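# step 3/5: fold
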Amino acid sequence: MIDHYSRLIDYMRISITDRCNLRCSYCMPDGIEKLEHESILTYEEILRICSCASEVGIRNIKITGGEPLVRKDAVKLISWIKALPKIEHVTLTTNGVLLEQYIDELKEIPVDGINVSLDTLNPETFEQITGRDDYFKVWNSIQKLIESGIPAKINCVPQRGVNDQELMDIAELAVKQQIDVRFIEMMPIGHGRESTGIRGEEIHEMIRGRYPGAVSTSNRRGFGPAVYITADDWKGNIGFISPISHKFCSSCNRIRLTSRGFLKPCLCYGNGIDLMAAIRHGASNQEITELITGAIRSKPLEHRLGDHNQEDLEKNEMYKIGG
């Protein structure tokens, strides 16, 4: 579907749970608000929303959380969404703690790609950031993921004074292994406002200093806004997602569905459509489709992340919105 600003909206990120088995300092260091199972979308409701969204042109789905793999039968949900007639790609974002045990099932579906969050290669720093001693579970998951042949990416959030001294080591995973590494600027949402991020261009310059032969590549490597560099002798690619320093709103192609059934046209703002309430009050598929169409039509021109004086900005923590 084309929105009011001539953007093709074909991608929906779906959070299937607010829960997570890590307590990252910039996300949920104090834990989460415990929700009853009835307070989040059932898998049947998620499938129904995906089917209706596909009728207006959504073709690509990202399953996220919280940590999606902590929810029972998350892998089955991925297979069910992938089987919907008009859905072309289904991918997963995970922290990797539980991933290793599911890789064979995910390959069988087949899932179209898996992103693993990893901000450090130091087990002590990992525990400092996440509040958990699970580094080697994540590392082993990444190695098995690479071996599986499933398209794989590492998502790293650079933080001044936390992991800034090892960003080159993380970047070089893409030089030496068949995996993409992406550096994502800190989002000034929730606890993210308390952290000092690092601009993507600073990391880009650092990498180009060591690898002057690296060049930009226009090859599409997913459905998000990352821009990539690579070199002939690299096994992977290095990407940058820079929503703060380099807005990419003019090419934004996504909407977001929270675990509580709230459809958000833009991450930045608090407005959206309560699809769970509509479904549980008996809305027909046509009515759900019309609500999704309305949300896409209301998608704003651009975000105002960092402008904390606006009353309409998103007030929830990131895990309540979907990572």
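# step 4/5: annotate
Residues 135-148 form the longest helix (14 residues).
# step 5/5: archive (pending)
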